[in-house]
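User: Sequence for peptidoglycan lytic exotransglycosylase below. Tokens please.
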Amino acid sequence: MRYSLPLLICLLFVLSGCAPKSAPTPQDEAFVTSVKAQNERFNALAEHENFDELLSLFRQNCAAPLSKKAYPNVCEQALHVKDARAFFQNSFELKKIQPNDQRSMLTGYYEPLLHGSMKKSARFKYPVYAKPKDLVAIVGEHDKKMRGRSVKGKMLPYYTRAEIEKHKINAEVLCYVDDKIDLFFMEVQGSGRVEFEDGKVVFIGYADSNGHPYKSLGREMFNRGIFTNLEDISLQSIKAWLVAHPNQIDAMLNTNPSYVFFRKMEQRATGSLGLVLTPERSVAVDRSYIPLGSLLAVKSESPNYKVDKFVFAQDTGGAIKGPNRADMFMGYGERAQWIAGELKAPLEVWIMQPKF
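Assistant: Structure tokens for peptidoglycan lytic exotransglycosylase:
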């Protein structure tokens, strides 16, 4: 019996128990490298992670509609998990977010405490405004929300910070506080607490803004030569300079035209996602690059603060711009204020993408 050459070759492979193999392609090698890097990154995060706590926070995060939109299947699965570590390792893949030309940086924010009164007095004379009744919001190009005021059928920009200082605006005064500088920083933080003389504490949260772009006071002071090194700029150093130059407080604060309006809250600091923020687990991000509700991994180190952990994108901020830019919520109290005021550190970010 005679066999054709192709048939003999096939029989040879069958008898030898082997199949013809091709060399790995660059795509194959890239995939293997990516999986290896993901496993190494996850194991590094797992060294100090409390996965049971993370699972509980993930379930809370899933209470927000935007989180469910980002993780529809995984949010459902999270309700029935018994092995928390296996759930995060098997349900997600870590994708590193590559930086652009904007600075990659981690900063911090906190929940400040102010002292106030419901009545205006010589001490308590700085109003905490609710959202003005004449503030109008419209949706513009690319779904960008713009704010202004309607005057005789025309849409005009809303008053700047300097103009609000001079005009009596059409807004409820929630209370009066005794420190203009602290009020300014509460706007920057987006929320805070006001303690009255009888010991009662009211939670204050972000309601809206006047629509003008946020301009960094620290950057303005650097441009004016007040600070000669960007690394010397912190909440503490800015406040110390303002206190030492009382005649220049208004002029300096008004270089930031943005103004924040507040509302009374029943609970402590709440982010843009609508959830109560968790200290050192909640971050503010630029939602143009990172969807709100996302589970992230961040890595950063400064002389006073080191972080390498899973966090949740639950807030936004006017100064948070770029893919590798985040603001860590530090919580309430002196430690939180000190770290948040000083923190400026290089940042790496990974987003946890669902596998199904």
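Residues 216-255 form one domain.
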